[in-house]
Design brief:
Elements: E1 2-12, E2 15-25, E3 37-46, E4 57-65, E5 71-80, E6 88-93, E7 97-101, E8 118-120, E9 130-132, E10 138-145, E11 151-152, E12 157-158, E13 183-184, E14 189-190, H1 192-198, H2 203-212, H3 249-254, E15 255-256, E16 259-262, E17 275-279, E18 284-288, E19 294-295, E20 300-301, E21 303-304, E22 308-309, H4 326-329, E23 339-342, E24 350-353, E25 359-364, E26 367-372, E27 392-398, E28 404-411, E29 481-482, E30 491-492, H5 494-499
């Protein structure tokens, strides 16, 4: 247990301060149960030596690193009464108000303020962080306020160890032998880092599982459930010697049924068709081609090594569909587009048949025979001839099956009578047809009495219209006309012009 003690005297203009304080801090705060606090005592005096006897003095206490670059902790002690102490004060660091533990980000004063962990990350008011190396001291800075604001006492006071607190005999009654001691040398690796590694939240459960025998990292000597190897191989395993031993790859490759196998003679590009056979003389399996002997049975007949298929063994059930070729039926007469047919005299023989040009198979009393197609038509009773002419018509007779049974020419009867009173070859003219009118008796053309034929536009051709000029005669004035007489000017009324459609002709109107 370390005990820190300092006593310091400060003289300021108008004031003099004598500060004496003692503190007790456990070296390992987390191993103690006592209070983590420092006792600060001193006196405030005027420059003339008279004590300050104010009944309300405010103090602020701060802890800094040894270089005074970062404030680690601060607190206030307000309204301290010095009226009866002749300027003396006694403050308990750790018991004030407005506590601000910036180092740890809390509002609690504890011994970790004095721990030296090395590099410390930035924190409030210490943007660059701070390095607290082993043996580094702390500085105490005291402020007082008599009503005009806080005034810092200078210089800052360092905290140092007292001689009798450098080494502690016990820690809360525990001797050194009661603790696990660090030993990190050439033969030992018991260090703080290794202890923390072994007992962190990840590895400690694994250590417990090993102690309890429930670890999945190791194989139990007496497992009670199947053991898996995560699809990995067991290596460096001996060949089995008893019935319940596991077999290695080498054993399974070189033994069959507990007997060795000699694979000589087989391998890539050699030993095709070889079999493993038992060699009684060598007491091992060898490769080779076994020689069969003895009588054949089942669907075979004869004896080994050359048995044959028994006649009764081949049945329709054993012949695959579409598997028998023509040569297996009868090789004689095989050709393209032949018909399979039984022999005409022996029904057990299947042969091939074909017919000649324009022949067809025809069933007869003795079986199928090739017959000319013309011969299948039978007698039709029709004589080859040309039937029908300009004076005759063909007369054809057909039976119930649709066959033509007879054909003959029948003459057309003449003369024809009762056609406009004419007989024979009759030629009719317009006069012979009633109801046509007089126009039917007229010819068309440009001669006198002919009908005019219109052109392609449905008009009288211009060539057929009269031409020339002359006087209009015998004009009588009337509706639409003005004037009159045999000659002179003929006038059309304006009303008539508006009503009449436009016309044109090749005559001159005067």
């Amino acid at each position: 247990m370390k005990r820190y003690h300092f006593r310091h005297q400060i003289i300021r203009t108008g004031l003099s301060l004598i500060v004496g304080w003692a503190c007790v801090v456990e070296s390992l705060a987390y191993a103690q149960s006592g209070p983590s606090s420092l006792n600060i005592s001193g006196g405030l005096f005027h420059s003339n030596g008279q004590p300050i006897t104010s009944s309300s003095v405010n103090f602020r206490l701060e802890i800094w690193d040894k270089a005074a670059t970062c404030m680690l902790y601060s607190e206030e002690h307000l309204g301290e009464d010095l009226s009866n102490t002749r300027g003396g004060f006694s403050l308990l660091l750790g018991g004030g108000s407005s506590a601000d533990n910036r180092l740890q980000g809390s509002a609690v004063m504890n011994a970790q303020i004095f721990a030296n962990p090395g590099v410390v990350a930035p924190f409030t008011g210490c943007a660059a962080g701070v390095t607290l190396n082993s043996g580094d001291e702390r500085l105490i800075r005291v402020y007082y306020n008599l009503g005009g604001g806080y005034i810092a006492m200078t210089p800052d006071v360092p905290i140092v160890s007292s001689a009798y607190a450098m080494v502690a005999e016990t820690l809360q009654g525990k001797a050194p032998a009661d603790f696990v001691q660090i030993r990190d040398d050439a033969t030992n690796d018991l260090s703080q880092a290794n202890l923390e590694e072994a007992f962190n939240s990840t590895n400690w459960p694994r250590l417990q599982a090993l102690l309890n025998g429930s670890s999945s990292q190791y194989l139990s000597l007496s497992p009670s459930t199947p053991v898996g190897f995560n699809s990995q191989r067991l290596t460096n395993v001996a060949d089995p010697t008893s019935a319940q031993d596991a077999a290695t790859k080498n054993y399974s490759d070189t033994y069959v049924g507990g007997k060795p196998v000699d694979f000589a003679g087989v391998g890539p590009a050699m030993g095709d068709g070889a079999a493993i056979i038992w060699d009684q003389a060598q007491n091992k399996w060898v490769t080779g081609s076994p020689t069969l002997s003895g009588a054949a049975g089942g669907d075979l007949t004869g004896s080994y090594p050359n048995p044959t298929i028994a006649s009764s063994a081949v049945t329709t059930a054993k012949i695959a569909n579409d598997s028998i070729t023509s040569a297996k039926i009868n090789n004689t007469g095989v050709a393209i587009n032949r018909l399979l047919i039984t022999d005409g005299t022996d029904p057990n023989i299947v042969t091939y048949a074909t017919c000649g040009l324009n022949e067809s198979l025809h069933w007869t009393a003795t079986g199928w025979a090739c017959t000319n197609i013309a011969g299948l038509l039978g007698a039709s009773g029709v004589t080859a001839n040309t039937y029908g002419s300009s004076t005759q018509v063909a007369q054809v007779a057909v039976d119930a099956t649709g066959r033509v049974t007879s054909a003959a020419n029948v003459s057309i009867a003449f003369p024809v009578t009762s056609v406009a009173g004419k007989t024979g070859v009759v030629t009719l003219n317009a006069a012979d047809v009633g109801g046509l009118g007089t126009a039917a008796l007229k010819d068309h053309g440009t001669a006198a009495g002919n009908l005019v034929e219109l052109d392609g536009t449905g008009k009288i051709p211009a060539s057929l219209l009269p031409g020339g000029t002359g006087d209009i005669t015998d004009v009588t004035a009337g509706t639409g006309l003005a004037g009159g007489g045999a000659s002179g000017n003929v006038q059309l009324s304006r009303l008539m012009l508006e009503l009449l459609p436009t016309r044109s002709c090749n005559s001159t109107v005067r």
